[in-house]
Amino acid sequence: MPELPEAETIARGLRAPVEGGTITGVSVLHADLVEMGPAALVRGITGAIIEAVGRRGKNVVLRLEGGDHLVVNLGMSGRLLWRPAHDPSPPPSHPGVVFRLRPAAQTPNPRAAPEGELVYHDPRRFGRIRLLTQGAYRTWSRSLGPEPLSRGFTARRLALELARSRTPLRSWLLDQGKVAGVGNIYASEACHVARLHPALPASEVDAAGARRLHRAIRRVLAEAVEGGGTTLRDYRTAQGWEGAYQHSLRVYGREGEPCPRCGRPVRRIVFSNRSAFYCPRCQPELPNDG
DNA sequence: AGTGTATCCTGCAGGC
DNA sequence: TGCCTGCAGGATACAC
């Protein structure tokens, strides 16, 4: 899934319909999606007002009145879909949890205001929904690395952290404790933009490489947010639309196609059981190769 | 510490 | 058409 740009796009699309709304009911269709169990979720959020919709890493976060946070990790195939009342479009095929909402905008007769639904949809059910108290949320958030699009994510900090690990760069980037929100697609894309081999040990990235990587991560993620995310198969925005960034991918999923920089065929390698895509010419094995 | 493997699941593409 | 295999954006636990 959904990596940072997809979670960000979903969060943005939920703000208008959801913020300020009240959760009037919850239906849990797949209990395995709810970390603390359906009963505790229903008890914990029914009647709560959603104060803000945000994102942390790849997670969509609903901040509730009173300080609790509803954290949604979309796994591989999760969607968060806003369905206005009386929406004529067909309902989601794999609903897992349905939140019924009374919108913030008060009509003259609030009881007449139609409810909408926020549907968590997830065919593979790798996603997880959890309700955290304010303190638990802070603890969880601190376990994640910096937000790559925030000011706290600096080239200097990145260089210092890279130097501490010999794990392959792609694996390092997938570690949510190092940088929050990068997944397999954008890890390959960022490595390509930075001209660093995905299997290069992190500590072998030199100072110039770390500066390029810092810029590349931010550029790729920001571009993908602008494109509304990457739809390969499952991802949709909160409105059910596909993203557009799949048309702008440089190397991910493009084995054998020409590198957009030099024209050499893109290669695919597998390590840690996952594919990485790279250009053998632009991203040589060793930092001072080629 | 880091890596490979397996696990949770379903859907889909490709080969036969 | 149908069966089988492999693969997929994530996260975690385990053995080595």
Description:
With 290 residues, the chain is of the alpha+beta class. It folds into two domains: 4-142, MutM-like, N-terminal (N-terminal domain of MutM-like DNA repair proteins); 155-278, Helicase, Ruva Protein, domain 3 (Orthogonal Bundle). The chain is built from seven helices and ten strands. α1 packs parallel to α7, α4 (155-162) crosses α7 (207-226) and α6 (184-194) packs across α7. The protein is globular. The chain starts with a helix and ends in a 12-residue tail after the last strand. The structure holds a DNA duplex (16 and 16 nucleotides).
Number of helices: 7
CATH superfamily of the largest domain: MutM-like, N-terminal
Q: Give the termini distance in whole angstroms.
A: 34 Å
Query: What's the shape?
Result: globular
Under CATH, the topology of the largest domain is which?
N-terminal domain of MutM-like DNA repair proteins
Specify the helix fraction band: 25-40%
Quickly describe the structure.
The chain is built from seven helices and ten strands. The protein has 290 residues and is an alpha+beta fold.
Write the layout of secondary structure elements.
Layout lengths: L3 H15 L3 E7 L9 H8 L4 E7 L2 E6 L4 E5 L5 E5 L11 E8 L13 E6 L6 E5 L1 H9 L12 H8 L6 H6 L9 H11 L12 H20 L40 E5 L2 E5 L12
Antiparallel strand pairs: 1-6, 2-3, 3-4, 4-8, 5-7, 6-7, 9-10
Helix pairs in contact: 1-7, 4-7, 6-7
This protein binds a DNA duplex (16 and 16 nucleotides) through α6.
